[in-house]
What does this fold into?
Amino acid sequence: MLAEKGLLHLLSQAGRHLGSLPGPLADAVATSVGWQVKQADVLAGVPDTDHWIVAGRSDVREDRIEVRRHWLRGTSSGRWALCLSFAAYQQSLDASLRVGTSVHADIHRYPGPALRSLVGARYALPVEPVSPPSHTIAEGCDEVGSMLVSEPWLDRLPVTIRARLARSGGVWALADATGSLPVLDAGTRQFDAGLAMLLAVSEGREVDLTVEWTPHGVVPLSIHLPERTVDIGPRANTSFVSAA
It folds into this structure.
């Protein structure tokens, strides 16, 4: 609670001094404190055109809305992008981005250094199987740290690492020779099923994984194998959304 209040205080103070902040940072603060940006204005901006690898997917219930996060990584730029979709009861989530594929498309980014983006024009059918480059855990932590420097209030960030599933003191973790990252204990049957799938597919060996970093641990989203990608991220309850 103290950490969350600290971030709220940081944002509120930054919001009171928007005029003195650098342009991209001011845009990021304004968006984070609630300033609305029309999708039409975002799509009217200059696109970031690349072959975008759909590295991972995560569905999270927030109050009465189901939120789907697709994490995309540019093949040429190496930059991450976040595409969101929302569904209320019996509505549908976006299923056009399939994990493990690459799509040649325009990405239109929201103002500031934010990862949030919209997919614009698509120039070809998706290609598979495609995997993003992986890092050691130490390198992955450096990448997450670099993104947090731009927006320290972010609570979910993507990273692809090569690691194995380990257990220490009753806690699951992802580990390699450079360190370890605790796995977020979500306490749900679906989350446990994702860990079971990871353990079964990897057989305890190191594999390439796209995970979602949070301040409390990482959430495994996808396992990248040479011939395919296995989507193990949290998935929306089909009794709530009409198509997940």
In short: Helices lie at 2-15, 23-32, 39-43, 137-150, 189-202. The longest strand covers residues 48-62. The chain has a mean pLDDT of 90. Residues 39-122 form one domain.
